[in-house]
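REQUEST FORM: STRUCTURE PREDICTION
Request ID: SP-0412
Submitted by: Lab K.M.
Chain count: 1
Length (residues): 340
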Amino acid sequence: MKQQRDPKLLVQPAPLLAQGMTTPSAMRDVWYALLPATLAGLWFFGLSALLVLLACIAGAVMVEWVFTPAESRKVALGDGSAALTGLLLGLTLPPALPLWQAFLGGMVAIGLGKVIWGGLGNNLFNPALVGRAFLLGTFPIAMTTWYPAQGPEHFFDLYSSTFAAPLMQGTWDSLTTASPLGMMKFEHQSSEFWSLFIGNTAGSLGETSGLLLMLGGLWLWWRRDLDWRIPVSIFVTAGLFSLILFMVDSARFPSPLFTLFSGGMMLGAIYMATDPVTSPLSPKGLLIFGTGIGFLVVLIRVFGGMPEGMMYAILLMNSATPLIDRYTQPRVFGRGVERS
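STATUS: Completed
RESULT:
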C-alpha cells in the first residue's frame, strides 16, 4: 500500500492563522529602512546628532513606560513603536538642538501624540510630528538654526549648544548657515541638486540625503510595509504644482527637483505620511490624502511664512483622514439597492 503524500491543501477548523506582518516586525522594517539615512546624518553632523537621536528616543520611551500599566509594559515597549517615534522625531531636528529640548520633544510626541488618544492605533496625528510642532512653536530659534555638514573628521566635535542648560538660552557658533529651503525662500538661491541628493548640506540630521531615504522606501515597499499610493501621489502633485510655478517665474520659484529633494519631503512622504494609523483606509482615500499633502506642502513653502511646509501639510491631512474615510469607504453590499 502506497504511503499517502502530504496534502497540498490543508483543511482545518477556524481560526485559520497565518504568519503575517506584526507590529514589532513592521517597526523593525522601518528601523532597517531608516538606518542608511541615520548613519549618513551621523557621518555629516557627528556625535551631537547621535546624542539628539538618543535623547528623543529616551524621552519617548520614558513616557511610554510611565503611562503603560505594569502588566502591559513588556508588550508596549517591545513593539518598538515608542522608540521609532523618537527616532523619527530626532531625524527631523537640527543636529545642534540642545539635548534637553530633544528629550522634551520625545516626551511630548508620545504624551500628546499617542497616550492622550488612548495608545497605539488610536491617535489622529502622527506622534513624531506632534513633537516637532511643539518644539518649533516653543523653541523657534533653536529649531531654525542650522549648521553645514562637517564630515567624519569632526565627528567628536560637539556643537556648543548641545549641552545647553535646561530653560537657558543656548549659545550658537558663528558657523551657522541657512538651510537650502531658507536660502531659496528668502534669498532666491537654489542649492546644488547633488548636495541635496547625497546629503552634504545643512538641514535636519535625517532629511538631507534623498538617495538613502528613497532606497529605504523601496525596501519598505518590497517588504509590503508601505503603500505606494501615498508617496507617489505626494511626489506627482508636488512636482506638477512646482513645475507650474517654476514655468511662471523660474527666478522666484524652485524647480520640481529642488522641491522633491529638499527639506522634509522625502522623509515625510515615505516614512510619516504613510503611517497606517493616521492615513485613510481605502486606496482612493490614500490617493486623495497624498494629493492633498503634495499640494499643501508646495503652497505653504511658497506662500507661507516658513520655508518648510511638510510637517503642517501632513498634520492638516491627518485631521482630514476621518472625513476622507467617511466618503471613500466602499459601499456595503446590498445597501442602497431597492428591493424588486
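NOTES: The domain at 25-328 is CATH 1.10.3430 (Ammonium transporter fold).
Reviewed by: T.R.
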